[in-house]
Design a protein that fits this description.
The protein has 347 residues and is α+β, with helices and mostly antiparallel strands. It has a five-stranded antiparallel sheet with strand order 1-2-5-14-8. The protein starts with a helix and ends with a strand. The chain is globular and about 45 Å long.
Length: 347
């Protein structure tokens, strides 16, 4: 009994006991708060510029810009109803942009600042004697001054149905043609060139933005930024398209009814030109519907009956030139509105 009284009345032990109780209480409250506190479920803030100052120029004179790893929200941030209210058209034109989902790209990569040009593609043809898909099948899908968008016989990369200079984007190239070019350039430089994945393309196009277009939400602000279906196109094709009752989309004249020199207009915030105009671009992915969960370095199926193209062009309805817009085409597909740019893997 004496020993128990000594322990109970020992001041040092009493202080230690009180301190231990306080520590347990504080730890317990903190632990409970951590359990009850919901995880951050907000969208990742778009990175304003995950860039280094690194650019390089390759053997063909292409400028490539290094993009660092980052996160972004891929797909449309507007609902189908909101897009219909803003732009019209049918729901089938928007459904493949949903659901919007978080994407995390874990590896840096270089992306060409511009499309592959006619001059650069000609170097590939001259070095390899490669026969493009259009040359093999004898026709492409496209638009000429005398015929609406559809099948056109005899058009090829060097005869696309309208005048081009060497610094215009090469068009009338298939997915296989673009892949063959990348393989040739990889062998030439002992590096790894590919088409960008769809996720890499949208990440680069958005350039840290979460708006409909990289410049904002209004199509009419595209003047000086992209080569789209504007007054120059309407004037060139006036007899053909207006007789069909087609509407005018954009009021200004950018100086080019079809393709323009690459890099002619303003670059996006990360220094990339013509991401949403001039010529639509092949990406690496075959088509697959979006998943709702977070994706890390996603890529669609390699073998697919349908493939993805991205970006607007000189012909297409301008509101299709949105950062989230997916165009789905059969494989193979060739058009005088369709080209590509290359991605270089970082070693």
């Amino acid at each position: 009994m004496t020993e128990k009284r000594n322990i109970r009345h020992n001041p040092l032990l009493a202080v230690m006991a009180i301190a231990m109780m306080l520590l347990i209480i504080v730890f317990g409250v903190t632990f409970i708060r951590e359990i009850e506190q919901p995880k951050d479920q907000t969208s990742p803030a778009p990175q304003s510029a995950p860039l280094t100052d690194q650019t390089l120029t390759n053997s063909l004179g292409m400028t490539l810009i290094r993009l660092e790893p980052g996160r972004f929200m891929m797909g449309s941030g507007l609902s189908t109803e909101q897009l219909l209210t803003k732009f019209g058209r049918t729901t089938s034109g928007y459904k493949d942009e949903f659901p919007q989902h978080e994407v995390h790209l874990t590896q840096p990569f270089y992306l060409a600042a511009t499309h592959v040009t006619r001059k650069q593609f000609a170097q590939f043809i001259n070095a390899t004697q490669y026969q493009t898909t259009a040359q093999q099948i004898g026709w492409v899908t496209g638009m000429t001054q005398t015929k609406l968008f559809g099948k056109h016989d005899g058009l090829t990369w060097d005869h696309p149905g309208f005048e081009q200079a060497d610094d215009h984007p090469v068009v009338c190239v298939s997915y296989d043609d673009a892949v063959a070019f990348c393989q040739w350039l990889s062998n030439k430089e002992n590096l790894t060139y590919r088409l960008p994945t769809e996720a890499q393309w949208e990440y680069a196009c958005r350039a840290g933005t979460d708006t409909l277009f990289w410049w904002g939400n209004e199509l009419q602000e595209a003047q000086g930024k992209e080569n789209l279906h504007d007054a120059s196109y309407d004037n060139w094709y006036a007899t053909l398209i207006h007789s069909k009752g087609f509407m005018r989309w954009l009021s200004w004249d950018d100086g080019y009814a079809q393709t323009s020199p690459v890099g002619k207009y303003q670059a996006n915030p990360w220094g990339l030109y013509d991401m949403l105009g001039n010529a639509t671009q092949w990406v690496r992915d075959g088509y697959a519907p979006y998943a709702s969960e977070k994706r890390i370095d996603p890529i669609g199926p390699n073998q697919a009956k349908r493939r993805i193209t991205r970006g607007g062009n000189w012909y297409v309805i301008p509101h299709y030139a949105r950062s989230s817009r997916r165009s789905i085409v059969p494989a193979p597909f060739v058009s005088n509105t369709l080209g590509f740019r290359v991605m270089l893997e970082v070693k």
